[in-house]
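Figure S4 source data
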Amino acid sequence: MQGTTMDGGSKDIATRTGEATAVDYDVDGIRRDFPILAREVHGRPLVYLDNASSAQKPRAVIDTERAVYEEEYANVHRGLYWLSERATDRFEGAREKVRRFINAAHGREVIFTRNATEAINLVAASWGRTFLEAGDEIVISEMEHHANFVPWQVLRDEKGIVMRQAPIGDDGEFLMDAFAKLLGPKTKLVAITQMSNVLGTVLPVADIVRMAHDVGAKVLIDGCQGVTHLPVDVQAMDCDFYVFSGHKLYGPSGIGVLYGKEELLDAMPPYQTGGDMIRSVTFEKTTWAPLPNKFEAGTPAIAQAIALGAAIDYLTGIGMERIAAHERDLLTYATQRLSAVDGLRIIGTAPGKASVISFDLDCAHPHDVATIADRAAVAVRAGHHCAQPLMERLGVPATTRASFGLYNTRADADSLAEAMEQVRRIFAR
């Protein structure tokens, strides 16, 4: 077990920093930082491979959140007493950690939300309802999560805007030439994932942003998967909005982030109203607080935001490049192991994909596959993965998905492959 500080950093994380290679990556030391990985399921060691849905939490995050409640909890931005001032400092310190992590220009551009879903809904409800008109076009991709699909669909039906889908190839690759043909003077927004939660496809978001800006469109990037596996620099990317959820980034649930360029956020009306987002209130008129408070109505998720900061400290201590190198090695190995299973077809083989493998078995429905895998203590996801339009494009009702994280190992991939062999044995009877 690793020692932790009050700020949530592992005392010996620094010993794991260095070159971005998988060779010197101390995965055993990292696994010891995650208490849940020591437990057994059905009498066998847990193999957790549902990280694309929600990642497990290191002790640094768990201890930080508990310490907030035990030692220094109070409401933020409102009290003149020590506890409130301490909580406010920690809360705003977490905002600064997020700012540095994604390289936003200023903390005013970092808005805390409940999750990425709320962040996208915020942009749709505030920016979209204010600046989009009937006939304007929004471009999304065929591989979007429902959270980056349904809010725009609702806006389409409400305002008469047009939604257009950028296609993908049969291997899951994003087709840049086809995307370019969808852009034009009516394109006002491109809302697109950085990395598919089903296929693992990593999109060339910097090029997408540049092309969208060339026709005067704004760009929202769904970074839920990307921020977990890839270094992120929103200024280099030049996106207008970027969203992600804390629970996928090894942080708590109930906390997410919306990054927006300051000039856009300034021009947008509030998404919700109430305490902490007001400057002044009279019976006749209410005025709004400046950024970021304008978009953070009510008491925020204080402990969760601070613990998200601890998760960022943890990841930064290991190094995102080193995590990515480890996961690339693991993806290659797991792909080889699964490809050797008779009747197993990997869905999504785009070049440069990241650590998600979706697949089907010709002998069993994905729900049966996941149920049998669970008896071997292998946790995988089965279903449409909140991407039903993508399932329709692929011509499948569902897939089984294994998604790898910073603490997964080749032994985990072996356990997954062995569980798939067990599925075949059961259904071959």
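Figure S5 source data
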Amino acid sequence: MKATEFITLKDIAAMDIEPKGRFFSATDLEIERGLTSDIYFVRTRDLLNSLGLADTEVTAEVFSSKEGILAGMDEALHLLRNRELDIWALPEGSEMSAKEVVMRIRGSYSDFGVYETPLLGFLASSSGWATAARQCKQAAGDRTVVCYGARHLHPSVAPVMERAAVTGGADASSCILGALLMGRAPVGTVPHAAFLIVGDTVELAKAYDRFVPEGDPRIILVDTFKDETEDALRVAEALGSRLNGIRLDTPGERGGVTAGLVRETRARLDQAGFEHVRIVVSGGLQPERITALAEAGADSFGVGSYIARAPAIDMTMDLKEVHGKAVAKRGRIPGIIGNDRLVKVI
């Protein structure tokens, strides 16, 4: 397959992209042509081409600014497919340390230089999301963590974030496309809107039980109308052994979900003979709260903003060899940096 032709300065000058009638996110083709790159990389390629140096053989290395979980490598490698390059990389989901080389590229500069911007972007954003998800999973221990972060991001990158979250350790995700791209089923029940329209938690719970296929978990929100423990017991009595879990998502206006609320709900369910009913918690969770709520008796956690809003882990690409000769800009050590964990991928 022929590699996609990179955009040139002349192409950019002639472009007149109409913003109406489209989303502002980039298409696959726009990324592959270099339209999401910083202009100076296109200028560099055209300049080197005018000097007959665009095809200079170089070795570039990408390193991380801090420790975390590496993600986004699959997309980075997809971007570099069909080009005559030798590439070594840490596998997707690897733990990485600060300043560690996570990727090494050797080949003609003209084949990948324009891609520096999107390559670093793939790795930086996804690694930040994956690292946040790992922190949540570590706090939860053997309990379930589901990523609910899509609502906190531009929809064009929501599936990327949820994939990174699962790479980092989340057990499942709610975004449909994100889950399907991983070969998984999206996870989720129904929101408060359904309860408000029906008008009663138990009536909605009964309807949900009739509606969903056998084998799907019956997990019911219990904080819409009444005291959470009261509605948890009402739902448990109505569905009996068919109820898998209740979900607490108490808003911040009422203090949010606290360890005390979880502890009381767990005790009252157990006292009424509903030990099998799991407690699912969501709403502004972060690792410290997950730990406290797990100790109080929560079984599963829906995490959104903490993962979705995680800061990117900055990545840097440096040229380390030109024509096989060790080079580096001031402040960096010339030549490739050894890393036995790198795997030849292309």
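The longest strand covers residues 57-64. The chain has 13 helices and 14 strands.
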